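>> received
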Amino acid sequence: MRRVITHRLAGLGLAAMTLMAAGGAVAVFAAGEPGEIMSPTDGADLMVSLVQSQDSVLWVSLAGNVTTVRTLGWPISDGTHDLGGALVLEKPSNPLAGTVNIGESPMSMEFDFGD
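>> returned
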């Protein structure tokens, strides 16, 4: 049984590396509601490791250079109008690790990989 699990994990890692080699790989993390910790989607945790607090996120790439980080905050209302959530786009100065602080727990984060 252990051998099967090892092969599956190795297969997922190879799939992530194949996507990155082809270019355009994206790792997405999302939360279900405000204040909730984001969870990886479609194996994103094989490409990026996150440490989250209430207002910031520390990320470390496990799969190569991150070219763009998109962070989306939760939409809010001023009582009359619905306002969009914060959107932060950044090209990290260090493509292997960084922090994002938007002053609240994010709704989602996307990490684009490239050369």
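>> Residues 1-22 have pLDDT under 50 and may be disordered.
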